[in-house]
Design a protein that fits this description.
The chain is an alpha+beta fold. The protein contains two helices and two strands.
């Protein structure tokens, strides 16, 4: 078995980059515009969408609990324009 797994060539390239004196390495995922992000519609009430496209999003799980069983964190408060846009869809 290979150190970083089968068919994983980028990890070897990055490893060798640093082994040969490299100091900063930036790696980005590049996907075509035709790919769509995975999503789940929950009873026509809630739509959950992956942040980017790819098969990785097919494994995302959503768990809904009653409010008294979990803490709620607001990470983004919608602006009036965003609310209007959602309500007109």
């Amino acid at each position: 078995m290979k150190r970083f797994g089968e068919h994983r060539f980028l990890s070897y390239a990055v490893d060798q980059f640093f082994a040969n004196g490299g100091s900063s390495c930036y790696v980005m995922r590049v996907a075509s515009f035709e790919q769509i992000s995975a999503f789940a519609d929950i009873e026509d009430t809630l739509k959950v969408t992956a942040m980017s496209s790819g098969t990785w999003g097919n494994t995302i799980k959503v768990q809904i609990r009653k409010a008294y069983q979990t803490k709620t964190y607001v990470t983004h408060q919608a602006t009036e324009d965003e609310v209007k846009k959602i309500n007109t869809q």
